[in-house]
Write a structure and sequence with these properties.
alpha+beta, Gyrase A, domain 2, 4 helices, about 60% helix, about 20% strand
Length: about 170
């Protein structure tokens, strides 16, 4: 014959086990554990408050900076919207372009001969290299002219230049 065993009792849950362990402690241990738990809880609350105050202070310092950046972005967006409503500036060409580039070179004190050459401009002459590069950069920014071909030969402080400029479009 087989022995019949009674079904095992259900395993106690974690709360039941903790309560049993608590009751197994003597009153003095319970008081010490309760005091230790209160100290740890208080330390956690104080730590959380300190962290919260630190974050609040950091955010208080960064908020004005963020607001200023937001204002700049909003101003930029407004300016972009305004510029999109304006027609694109008309590019100069032919004699008007030649006259504008000659006046620009003269205002910078560059002794260059500038003439129309096909769809662009032919530039020859002598100038300081720094002045020449700055002028060419300004022409590209202001008039959309880019250097297609350029030969430069240094001669002391001045350089002899032979260049062809064309519109940056297309």
């Amino acid at each position: 014959m087989k022995a019949v065993t009674a079904p095992s009792a259900a395993k106690p849950g974690p709360v039941t086990r903790i309560a049993a362990a608590w009751q197994a402690r003597n009153p003095r241990e319970r008081k010490l554990l309760a005091a230790a738990g209160a100290v740890v809880g208080l330390a956690l609350v104080l730590s959380l408050l300190d962290w919260s105050n630190g974050q609040r202070s950091r955010l208080g310092r960064s908020l004005p900076r963020a607001e200023a950046q937001l204002e700049q972005v909003q101003e930029s967006a407004t300016e972009i919207a305004r510029l999109r409503t304006q027609p694109a500036p008309r590019r100069l060409n032919g004699p008007a372009l030649l006259e504008t580039v000659q006046a620009s070179a003269k205002s910078r004190g560059l002794g260059l001969a500038i003439q129309l050459a096909g769809d662009g401009l032919q530039i020859k002459g002598q100038a300081g290299l720094d002045d020449l590069v700055g002028w060419l950069a300004a022409l590209q920014t202001d008039l959309g002219l880019r250097v297609v071909r350029m030969e430069v030969q240094g001669q002391g402080a001045a350089a002899t230049v032979d260049a062809v400029l064309a519109s940056g479009e297309g």
